[in-house]
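Hi R.,

Here's the chain you asked about this morning:
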Amino acid sequence: MNQVEAKPRWYKAFFLAVIMPLIVVMAIFPVRNWFTTTDIVMLQLLWVTWVAVRSNRRLAILTTLVSVACTDWFFVAPNFTFHIENIEYLVTFIVMLIVGFVISQLAGELITKVRDVQLHASNSRTLYELAKDLNSLDTLDEQKKYFVQRIGKHLNASCTFMPAAPRGNSEFILLSEANPSWGGFNFTKRLTQGQKAFADTAISLLYQVHEKTLLRQQSAAISVQAELERAKNALLRSLSHDLRTPLATIMGASSMLADDEITLSDSVIKEQASNIYEQSKILNQHFDKVMELSRVNKMGENLCWQTINLQALLSEAKARRQQQLTHFVIDTNIDAQSKCAGDVTLLEIALANMLENAWRYGDGKVSVEFTQSSNQQKVCYQLLLTNNVITKAQTSSDEGVGLGSIICDVVAKFHQGTFTLTINNETQMAYAKLIWEKDND
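And here is the predicted structure, written out as tokens:
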């Protein structure tokens, strides 16, 4: 909003101050015998009041002078002259001038106060909307761009962000007096005192939003780092536990076979060799999981969102563990047309690990459920696997959480989601839940 009081154009001012008083006089002149001079003066004051309220005080004063002159010319004897014979008319005209001036002054003050209130309300509303909209933007560049558009439009002055004050006849305001290196905003014209005060307040508000955004970004970075440390510790703990047991078995069996002082029967030798082979297979599976986790982390850097058929996703995930899940029963009520969005390869890997865990610790069958919900901002997908647990979980302090669960957790986080695995000790039911979200386009 422009903070300079608008003035009427010259032809509009001429019409209001000169032409309209003449029109009023000409309208009264044919019936002048019906009115006294005082009545005519009061009628003229009506127009003066209207001009004072709708325009400005200077124009109202000019209208008063023209009205007095017209009344004297047309209605005071001798007519069509400015000569006044009766002192009564002189007093009337003086009072009319004084009343007209007072009305003009009061109306002018009222208009000024009303415009000040309107300007203050407009500035307050703009600052409120600016604060709300700036807080909804995530980056500093977006906030500066929006600020330039909104404030430039409000002040009716072109505004740009610059790293340093330019030369020339312009108005430059720093974003932060304490940090001049942050730059500031340049207005192409000099601002009035009121406009500059408003711009200072708006820029101070932007600076506060900037600081809040930087703190939020730092907090997010710290949270990500903490999450990475947690994942790293979980991975190391899982590897430590999962590798220690087969390695201990292999070392024990191989040392027994290599000891010359121990005489072993053929059946014992065969049993120990079988143990070494089985534990070697377990180690190989662990290394495969490590490679799969590395692959997931690499793919997550370039996440590719696709529309995926749920039945096809389930089939491909089962195919990834075909040797283990050959006779595994998967009970699902997923509709053939059900679809979700995400990286198809990563979701296949996550679902394959969920099925493998259900097979490894379950009773040979699992129930798969899929749900979807949405709002204006996001679409939320959920896969829930439920199975009976027949293997009692270990409770040692160094127990691993399983690389399969870690892989599912990483895939979920890449998709802005979460993975949880819970076991109900009373019912001996395991619930593996993969939840992820996608922003609405």
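One quick note: DSSP finds ten helices and ten strands in the chain.

Cheers,
M.
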